[in-house]
């Protein structure tokens, strides 16, 4: 693993690929679970019609306009939580959606959480998709604005550790984004580790 912290003051489109292979650890309810990130999506606030922050700050998205290194957690369609890492300069809404990962520690707890929330047939599927990833890490709207630490010995609620650069990264259009923000030619800001079995099923629409 790299011992160099990621520069979270960078905008999402610059940071996103550097998060691939990184490990995020949650310590929720006294249980530690670690996920290796294999798929992410970048969102660019007021410059991005696909972003929740496109029309400016609201009570829901205000954390995106705050300092980098915090979580933006929202509830999708009133059903599922999704977690984003806020990045970029303070005051500029920029965030990376954590779309999919591999549970590499705390598998029993991740499996328990996933089974409590619904069906989970294989360990490959524990964090294979943004809602599943949030469940595996135990993240809900309660954790919105939580700090994500990067110190090597961090023991807070959430910590992030950089990983080795993937051998091959693919990109494509973002999933579930309609209108102008769903234009894959302009906003091909979904990135994943090519060939990794924990990437979501949408990977087939990508490009190099």
From TrEMBL:
A single MF term (Gene Ontology): hydrolase activity, acting on glycosyl bonds
UniProt xrefs under InterPro entries: Formyl_transferase-like_C_sf (IPR011034), MPG (IPR003180), MPG_sf (IPR036995)
Keyword annotations from UniProtKB, A to Z: DNA damage, DNA repair, Glycosidase, Hydrolase
Family recorded in the similarity comment: Belongs to the DNA glycosylase MPG family.
EC number: 3.2.2.-
Cited Pfam families: Pur_DNA_glyco
Signal sequence interval, chain numbering: none
The keyword DNA repair is assigned to this record: yes
Protein name: Putative 3-methyladenine DNA glycosylase
């Amino acid at each position: 693993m790299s011992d160099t912290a990621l520069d979270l003051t960078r905008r999402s489109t610059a940071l996103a690929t550097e998060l691939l292979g990184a490990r995020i650890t949650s310590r929720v309810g006294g249980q530690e679970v670690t996920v290796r990130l294999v798929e992410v999506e970048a969102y660019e606030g007021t410059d991005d019609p696909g972003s929740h922050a496109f029309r400016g700050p609201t009570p829901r998205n205000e954390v995106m306009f705050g300092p980098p290194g915090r979580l933006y957690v929202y509830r999708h369609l009133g059903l599922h939580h999704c977690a984003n890492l806020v990045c970029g300069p303070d005051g500029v809404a920029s965030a990376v959606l954590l779309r999919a990962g591999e549970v590499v520690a705390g598998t029993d707890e991740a499996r328990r959480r996933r089974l409590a929330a619904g069906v989970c047939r294989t360990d490959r599927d524990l964090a294979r998709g943004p809602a599943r990833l949030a469940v595996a890490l135990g993240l809900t709207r309660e954790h919105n604005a939580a700090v994500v630490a990067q110190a090597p010995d961090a023991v807070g609620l959430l910590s992030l550790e950089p990983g080795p650069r993937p051998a091959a990264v693919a990109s494509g259009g973002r999933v579930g984004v309609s209108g102008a923000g769903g234009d894959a030619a302009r906003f091909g800001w979904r990135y994943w580790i090519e060939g990794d079995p924990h990437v979501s099923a949408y990977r087939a629409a990508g490009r190099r």
